[in-house]
Amino acid sequence: MSADRKNFFESLDIQTRRSFLKLAAMAGVSSSVLLAGPSLSFGSPSLTAGGKDGDIKIMNIALGLEHQAIAVYQVGAETKLLSDAVLKVAVKFQDQHKQHRDALAATIKKFGGKPVEAQAKYDAGAIAKGVGVTQLAAEKDIIMLAARLEEGATKAYSGAIPGIESKDVLKAAISIMADEAQHTAILRSALGEDPVPSAFVG
Fold it and tell me: What's the pTM?
């Protein structure tokens, strides 16, 4: 692990308000949206049958992405390739994905739907190849895989948002998308890439 990357992760304190606001700016998203994230409530459904069914489908797609992210972070941690500083951040990000998962699953149930379940096993190698990461042999490979998945999730939420009818679900989706964008920016920075290469997501 390079000294620059080690220092980057060791200096990262995303639990403080000051750092959180800096990361919001780096990710190019509204700090007010980010700061609402962990305590956000999805509220109670008040939709027509058609709108409710559509929102359930969107939430289940999002839930599937969260299941995958949780599994991939777990695989990354278990490779023993991550330094302590990187592992700490990976565990933090995985925990946030678990919070997304739990919120989505609970809301799907409130809407009368059935939350999609996680697969019994995820093929991290196949997932990696699907996003252009050819091997998982070094710490940089794990970080790159996580960055590509976070970027894909950000774009997926962005693409789903126009189809959401419930204002409560819409607000939650925007908040989760902002968190995914934050993860992406941090991981891209760790790789030495431009953390925010575009003014728009998509």
Answer: 0.77
Q: Is 188 within 8 Å of 29 (Cβ atoms)?
A: no
The domain made up of 17-35+46-190 has a fold known as: Ferritin (1.20.1260)
Q: What is the pLDDT of residues 156-183, one digit of tens each?
A: 999 888 889 999 899 999 999 999 999 9
**Backbone phi, psi, residue 116, to 5°:** -65, 140
Task: Give per-residue pLDDT as tens, 22-58.
Answer: 433 333 323 332 333 333 344 444 434 447 888 998 9
Distance in Å from the first CA to the final CA of the chain: 31
**Residue type at 27?**
A
What is the chain's Cα-based Rg? Answer: 17
**Phi and psi angles of residue 196, each rounded to the nearest 5 degrees, phi first:** -135, 80
Task: Give dist(CA 31, CA 101) in Å, integer.
Answer: 22
Domain boundaries along the sequence of the chain? 17-35+46-190
Going by C-alpha positions, the residue among 41, 84, 39, 58 that lies closest to residue 157 is: 58
Helix, strand, or coil here: 116? Answer: coil
**Among 178, 183, 186, residue whose Cα is nearest residue 32:** 178
Neighbours of 83 (CB within 10 A): 13
